[in-house]
Amino acid sequence: MNSDWKRAEEALRLAEVVGHENNKPVSVIRFPENLRCIGIGTDAAVFYDPSTPDYAYKVYAAQALEKKDVEAKIYDRLKGSCYFPRCYGVGPNYLVLSLEQGMTLYDCLLYGVPVPEQAIQDVEEARQFVRSQGLNPRDIHLKNVLLQEGRGKVLDVSEYIKEGNDNRWEHLVWAYQHVYPLISGVKVPLWMLETVTNWYNRIDTAAFSIEEFAKRVSGLFFGERK
To answer: In 3D, which of 64, 112, 57 has the Cα closest to residue 87?
Structure first.
């Protein structure tokens, strides 16, 4: 593949992404017809160009441009691992990443696709590799893990230079072991997933109990099924 992604450079220059305060998702103001927006985050939007089908282009908002080079350096340190996308290049406001197929774990819950234990173990091994490279595996959640033919792949490495443990993945593993067996293969309504996400994002970390949170979530889920 090498540098054939450069065929998309002209289109990428016309893509405009605007960031917002309070960690809200970016807004995509405009982009050429030949690009497709396939993802939106708090710092950037991800585009796909059918003429370069092996790549995904992460276009950053102006307010987050400093994070682009930081993330490129993180990908360089993770080079060679099968658990992460590959970074092929850096543009003025974007990264060129390998296009990864598969469903996120979030979508697996939404569509009732069973998540095998192997995928969870893959993320654990990915986290160990991150630490071996002197980085800190943070911000690993349902929308940042892909299921690829029964295996797990981790997306979005942008927070790996930050300190501290946000415990997101540890909480998910606990839920996978203690709650997920009750709902594996069941389609969870979107409103319910978003409700649980909002509850979690508002937790008081100092007084948080995963067991109590799980009881609250289980009450929501099984109450809906009655």
So the answer is: 57
Q: Which two tokens stand for residue 207?
A: 């007084």
As given in the structure block, the two tokens for residue 128 are 């160990």
Per-residue pLDDT tens over the stretch 63-112: 999 999 999 999 999 999 999 999 999 999 999 999 999 999 999 999 99
User: Can you tell me the distance from the alpha carbon of 145 to that of 106, in angstroms, rounded to the nearest whole number?
Assistant: 8
Q: Are 19 and 61 in contact (CB under 8 A)?
A: yes
Q: Tell me the residue length of the chain.
A: 226
The pTM of the full predicted model, rounded to 2 decimals, is 0.89
